[in-house]
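In the current project phase, we have settled on a layout for protein records. One protein thus recorded is set out beneath this paragraph:
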Amino acid sequence: MQLSEWLTVLIIGWFVVITPGPNMAIVIRNSLIHSRSAGVYTAGGLAFGNLIHIAYCLVGIGLLISEELSAVQEWIFNTSERKVKPTAK
C-alpha cells in the first residue's frame, strides 16, 4: 500500500471515530454529571474497547486467511473424521 492510501484510510477512520453517536453521548453525560476527568476516563475506556475489538477482528481475519485455513475450518465446523460405533442389536 502506498503512503497516500494509508493516509486516506487513516483520515476516513478518524472521521468515523469522531462522529457523534452513543459513545459521544456517554462521554458528554459523564463529563457533565460527574467531572471532566470522568469524561476523560470514559473516553479512554471506549478507546481501549475499540482497540480490543480491532485486535480480535484482525487476529480472526489473519487466522482465516492463513495457510492453515483447513485447520481453522476443522476446528470451527468440527469436520474431522467421525468414527461411528456400530450399535448392538
